[in-house]
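Quick one, tokens below. Sequence please?
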């Protein structure tokens, strides 16, 4: 009987702990989801309610007028295609170049290994600034209003190189040595051994580069306004909505049936975020695996 009593007490304590953890996790989920739900609610909310700060998780009056205003721009779909093109091409090129450089730096027989590593790391702390970069891209490389201005400047990220190199260093060196004995060259080893084994970290790098390419609009503003991307067009729409009406005149807003800057800003946020949210679940397992490299050593 005493044993059963102790067992029941332990079970009851475990149940209490489980309930506490459940409550904590529910609160964390609410805290995490609330900002996104609030943004979504404002984007679907009536502009007058938004101007009067009547905002909840569930809009008082649903309307798609904010999204109609955003998609009213004629060049929005061509800008979307430009963003997709730069994201796909830029991500593929970035992953390929990053994995190549990381493989070279991971080679123990590469004499200038440490020297080049120091050069790469220094660039993370010291930069030339915007003006030298602008002059380099526009005058020296002649990339103004060229699609290459979306690809070349962001081709290499030093952090990604370090990430991939750390992963490659954890791979068995015997695989490369066996391939060399069989007569394989460096290109074959990189393409047939390193890349297939590095899928988790390469997927992580691909996600980083894709998000950076998708969200970038400053390069369009500075170098390629004739090749507008979705982010740049959304930025222009948001600026036009901000300057179109006084942000404190809710009565005028209701009379003219126009949009509010806050509603447009939230609608633009949703339009810009949804494509990445759709892609992320397919890369999540690789992303987790890539970010935990080095956590477990054999």
């Amino acid at each position: 009987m005493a044993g059963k009593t102790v067992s029941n007490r332990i079970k009851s304590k475990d149940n209490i702990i489980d309930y506490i953890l459940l409550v904590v996790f529910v609160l964390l989920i609410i805290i995490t989801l609330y900002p996104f739900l609030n943004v979504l609610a404002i984007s679907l909310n009536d502009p007058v309610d938004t101007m009067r700060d009547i905002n909840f998780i569930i809009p008082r009056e649903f309307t798609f007028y904010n999204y109609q205003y955003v998609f009213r721009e004629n060049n929005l779909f061509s800008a979307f295609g430009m963003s997709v093109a730069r994201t796909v091409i830029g991500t593929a090129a970035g992953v390929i170049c990053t994995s190549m450089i990381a493989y070279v730096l991971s080679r123990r027989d590469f004499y200038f290994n440490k020297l080049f590593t120091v050069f790469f790391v220094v660039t993370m702390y010291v930069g030339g600034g915007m003006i030298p970069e602008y002059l380099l891209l526009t005058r020296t490389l002649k990339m103004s209003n060229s699609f290459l201005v979306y690809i070349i400047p962001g081709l290499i990220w030093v952090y990604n190189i370090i990430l991939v190199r750390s992963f490659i260093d954890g791979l068995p060196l015997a695989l490369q040595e066996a391939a060399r004995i069989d007569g394989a060259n460096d290109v074959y080893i990189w393409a047939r051994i390193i890349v297939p084994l590095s899928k988790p970290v390469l997927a992580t790098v691909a996600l980083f580069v894709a998000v950076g390419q998708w969200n970038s609009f400053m390069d369009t503003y500075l170098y390629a306004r004739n090749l507008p991307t979705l982010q740049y067009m959304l930025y222009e729409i948001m600026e036009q909505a901000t300057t179109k009406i006084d942000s404190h005149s809710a009565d005028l807003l209701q009379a003219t049936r126009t949009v509010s800057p806050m509603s447009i800003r939230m609608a633009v946020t949703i339009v810009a975020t949804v494509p990445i949210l759709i892609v992320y679940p397919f890369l999540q397992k690789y992303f987790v695996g890539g970010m935990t490299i080095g956590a477990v050593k054999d």
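Confidence is low (pLDDT under 50) at residues 250-256, 294-298. The radius of gyration is 26 Å.
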